[in-house]
Amino acid sequence: MEAAAKLLATARHVLFLSGAGISAESGVPTFRGAGGLWRQFRAQDLATPEAFKDNPMLVWEFYHYRRETVRQCKPNRAHMAVAAFQRRLSASGRRADVVTQNIDGLHQAGGATDVVEMHGSLWRVKRVKERGFVEEPNKVWEDKTQLFEKGLGAPDVDDVKLRKEDLPRAATGELLRPAVVWFGESLDRRVTDEIEILLHQCDVLVVVGTSAIVYPAAGYAQVVQRRGVPVVVVDIEPTPAESHATHFLQGRAG
User: Fold this and answer.
1) What is the DSSP string of 41-74?
2) What's the pLDDT tens digit per position in 60-117?
3) pLDDT above 90 (res 252)
4) Which of 10, 21, 104, 122 is the most exposed, fewest CB within 10 Å of its CB?
């Protein structure tokens, strides 16, 4: 712990990479492991273009449930600490950036700025024709309104209550979908390019609460390690990223 703290105290450019573990401490479901189902479905069975095409009502109920759940969650001490560290480095002419695999927006709610959201956001929507994660103006926009009635998407019911005519649509009438990256879709090239730049600029990488299984994020620790950049891994349990860690701190992120 002390060695990692000294490392961060002298760093000029720290890059944080966060995953589901940091938000789990705020009560955000991870939909992984035992009990990780919504109704009888795995998240990866619903988070696909094919699932949305087959049953957009079911998929929107799932994402409405996720939005309503996250709406009740607050940033935890880890989110706050990252934001405070970012401000402290900025005040001293240094820099800290945040790249997150999460789609909940809790880093921003905790005060972090210029957060790179690899997989999009629960709070944005886009037209169905826009595949994957895009950031181009007018192709994706934020919508934090209550899209559907409260309680819709409850995990303890079996039937789909949402009707097709109730689905959100653009002014042109085109069906809208959550602006997140689904399984089988690619990340926006501009986002991956930005992350590559940060990986080659940072002098410390801090990996927080991610299993380091899903690529490309799973390879980031190895990328910076090849440059001789130290890697600090913080997780409640050992992860594959630990093999590339200069310092592994086991425990809660917050």
Assistant:
1) B-HHHHSSHHHHHH-HHHHHHHHHHHHHHHHT--
2) 999 999 999 999 999 999 999 999 999 999 999 999 999 999 999 999 999 999 999 9
3) no
4) 10
Predicted TM-score (pTM) of the model is: 0.89
First and final C-alpha spacing in the chain: 14
Phi, psi of 130 (to 5 degrees): -85, 100
In SS3 terms, 155-197 reads as CCCCCCCCCHHHCCECCCCCEEEEEECCCCCCCCHHHHHHHHH
For residue range 177-190, what is the model confidence (pLDDT) as tens digits? Answer: 999 999 999 898 88
CB count in 10 Å sphere of residue 123: 20
From CA 100, how far away is CA 2, in angstroms rounded? 25
DSSP-derived secondary structure letter, 30: -
- Inter-CA distances, 94 with 210, 221, 252, Å: 25, 21, 26
Side-chain-facing half-sphere of 214: CA atoms under 13 Å: 19
Query: What are the residue numbers of the active site?
Result: 119
Q: Among 4-8, 31-35, 143-147, 243-247, which range has the highest average pLDDT?
A: 4-8
In this structure, what are the phi and psi dihedrals at residue 202, rounded to the nearest 5 degrees? -70, 150
| Cβ contact 11:92 at 8 Å | no
**Which one, of 127, 163, 136, 102, lies nearest residue 49 by Cα?**
127
**Which amino acid type is present at position 22?**
I
Backbone angles phi, psi at 247, to 5 degrees: -135, 130
Q: SS3 of 2, please?
A: helix
Beta bridge partners of 205: 15, 231
